Amino acid sequence: xxxxxxxxxxxxxxxxxxxxxxxxxxxxxxxxxxxxxxxxxxxxxxxxxxxxxxxxxxxxxxxxxxxxxxxxxxxxxxxxxxxxxxxxxxxxxxxxxxxxxxxxxxxxxxxxxxxxxxxxxxxxxxxxxxxxxxxxxxxxxxxxxxxxxxxxxxxxxxxxxxxxxxxxxxxxxxxxxxxxxxxxxxxxxxxxxxxxxxxxxxxxxxxxxxxxxxxxxxxxxxxxxxxxxxx
Length: 231
Fold this sequence. Notes:
- It holds the Pfam family DDE_Tnp_IS1595.
- This is DDE_Tnp_IS1595 domain-containing protein.
- InterPro entries: IS1016-like_transposase (IPR053164), Tnp_ISXO2-like (IPR024445).
- It comes from Dracunculus medinensis (Guinea worm).
- This protein is α/β, with parallel strands linked by helices.
- It has a domain at about 75-180: 2-Layer Sandwich (Nucleotidyltransferase, domain 5), CATH 3.30.420.
- It has helices spanning about 15-25, 35-40, 45-65, 120-130, 145-150, 155-160, 175-185, 195-210, 215-225, and strands at about 75-80, 100-105, 110-115, 135-140, 165.
- A five-stranded mixed β-sheet has the order 3-2-1-4-5, with helices on both faces.
- A hairpin with a 5-residue loop joins strand 2 (about 100-105) and strand 3 (about 110-115).
- The longest helix has 21 residues, at about 45-65.
- It starts with 15 loop residues before the first helix and ends in a 7-residue tail after the last helix.
- About 25% of the residues are buried.
């Protein structure tokens, strides 16, 4: 049985030794095109292909392990963030691209999702989708909407049904602000058409905390594409 047959390596053409080195370097965030050309002797196409492969595993891992954050008595900070602030080559503003996220202070669990718009209805929908009942929610997003708009979106009923406790604007939201700072620093200039895979990689890395990244990724590969035969 060939070592590349029936597993995640199927279809790859670079030497196995280069694959292992690439995986390890990706875990250390050292797989830019320039670095891979110099240190691993990989072509542009091979580098792009393998970076895409790695992020596909992250997408699968994030989807498989997705869960709501917070819970009774736990504090969740939520906020939105403008992903695309750049202009194109014609100096024309590009369409705004917003993401919405939250982080639980006590557990450090988090979520980030792309949102179609910034309406009150959209945000309340994503809160229900991602935040457990009984959570204490810290955010200043409420001050962005008129009372009428919040009522139309079902804000008061949401608080009753899900037992959410929304804390007044002006509260401390350092956790979510730090998360956005980290995201913006790492993904300034990220290609729009690969956005969801970069987002998955970011979430996967953030949720690892102190776990060994290399070992964790190998486990995810096994879940993503179980080998046809155990070696």
